[in-house]
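Fold it.
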Amino acid sequence: MSRRVHVVGAATSAGAHGPGQELAPAALREAGLLRRLQDRGLEVVEHGDVVQLRMRPDDEHPALRSAARVVAAATTVADHVERLLTESAEDRILVLGGDCTIQLGVVAGARAARGDRVGLAYVDLDCDLTSPVEGNGFADWMGVTHLVGAPDADPRLAGLGGPPPMVTPDTLRLVGADLATPYEQRRLADLALTRYTTEEITTDTAGVVAELTAWADDLDLLSVHVDVDVLDQRLFPVAEEQRDTPGLGLETLGVLTAGLMGHPAARVLTVCEVNPARPPDPGTALASLNDLLAGAMTAPPAGRRD
């Protein structure tokens, strides 16, 4: 596998409920991300921020706010991911978000380059299964709804890059998804989605990684989405959502992410929901996150089981 990694910034909070996440790519770089990758022996190709959008209120469309801006950001990300995967089949891509809606672009671009057997490990404390029919109107909380092309999804997002769905219950795993509204719980059951709770992951991290990598054996490409809200926010204050739910410890998330990115099919790692404006001094948290990302991008390869 190539030792080259392409770093793509998606500096957008267009789909979020407030600004701040658009600052994350620059903050991660300033905290030494590129040097950490290089120190681990990677050849780093820096693509800068391909998207730069700040959240702005959109009270005229309360069911789905700023949809056109979210689509524009995701489409730009899709174009870059497709090109990189087409031109450099063995290279890896590290996408620095930005809010969770950029994952729509990552998957759309990967499918355009590699076909339908693109899988997504979606690491997030939320299920992101709200919708324009049942939700708070922010696309950031509807990502999975649009990825699976649910009946109440907005066609502009669900059809990004082609006919929906972008992923199916067979090519999607929700990882760490403890939080679900009653509406989301019904959708989880209706779609028969597979999810792992933070308790399951913490109790048997190696076992969960083994199950996920066995699932990935049937994929042509694995994309890994890490929403830092999955971390214990009492200890990791740069997460966008501030909640009392414990979440995962940083070490556990590191083992999980490295295990997934060690799979031969793993090509894209996306990090989302980092808001460096939250704490007065985000330096320590950002440095820890950079170590986690560098570790994941240099994870020793795990053998595919045929």
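The radius of gyration is 17 Å.
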